[in-house]
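no rush on this but wanted to send it before i forget. theres a chain ive been looking at and ive put its sequence and its fold in token form underneath. i want to understand how the tokens follow from the sequence so walk me through it. thanks a lot i owe you, the record is right below:
>
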Amino acid sequence: MNLSYFIAARYFRSKKKRNFITVLSTISMVGVAVGTMALVIVMSVFNGLEDLIREIFSSFDAELKVEATLGKSFEVSEDWLGGIRDIEGVAILTEVIEDNALLDYNGNQLVGTIKGVSDNFLDQNRFSKGYFWGDTTLGTDKRPAAILGRGVGFFLSVNLKDINIPLKVFYPKAPRSAGSLDPSQMYSSDFLDPVAFFSVERQFDDEYIIAPLHFTRDLLNYGDRRTSLEVKVADGYSISDVQDRLKEHLGEDFSVKNTDEQHAGLLRTVKLEKLFVFLTLTFILAIASFNIFFSLSMLAIEKKKDIAVLKAMGAPDRLIRKIFLKQGALIAFSGALVGLVLGYLICLAQQYFGLVSLGISSAVVDSYPVKVVWSDFIWISISVIAITMLASWRPAHIASKVNTITEL
């Protein structure tokens, strides 16, 4: 057995009566354990929130979204769309026309976003997360229907059971050189039957209504132009591989974004928050680890005679430093191990039993989401090692400078 580790372990497992040093060492272990446990729990919560955001957005957004790099819309043709459908891995291609419009229901008005989609929109497992109630249909050519965000329905006081009140949609016409005294000539309008509500996330709930593509195309006078194309990837194919094929096929005039890239700003914000929380809790853990510095300093004073005996027997200064560095490592690693295990068990309990509720009755999930990522354990362990070495180095250096003559 390594001599320095043997002596450090004997000091760590000392059976003699408890004194201030052993109490301080115990406090150090508890502080490291609590700090490590907090890091595991908080990092896991941020991982869970990041996954939840992805799941929520994926229930409304497409797996891949094609947009023009310049301009708001682009021209399409059947041959061009057919070329995209023939790309390996493309299962469903949905045409989209999206723009702002004025919504009116029984005298209540709201400016929202109308999203016109082709008939296969609901074939892409939309609204799999969150809530959906009503008919899963967009009506017929003669009687087009709309699926409204819950917030839009609330603001407009829409009653799905009242089939006699339609939703009226207004869209401004392109300005003309000659003015008109008739305000109705400045906009186009048409009617939709509200048939369902969806609730995914407030950003979508308060703004969007889903309508048939032909209705939106005619009302907004888009013709063969589309604002985007949404692609569902076939089972067994990698989204990234299909994304690369689409980029190669479409060229630089179009961007192809996956779900993460469609909300890159929000996900980047979550990652930055996770980083800053990690740094903050690591700093708190470093403060808690100062107890290791004080306990080792006190131990070095108490063990001066032992150190002098070891030096008299020929022990070099390096051996003395190793003893105290390993003593600090034993204190810190014992606390860190307890913290890692407790943090993992608490995360498992939260994941399966929902110990801590969000306290929001209309939330997509009832309790805080957690996800344990093993790479977080590695970073936490690296932080504990670095902090321990910094806290233990000075007392170990002081212990190695004990004067043999004066202590014997």
About this structure: The chain has a mean pLDDT of 84. The longest strand covers residues 90-105. Residues 62-262 form one domain. The two ends are 28 Å apart (CA to CA).
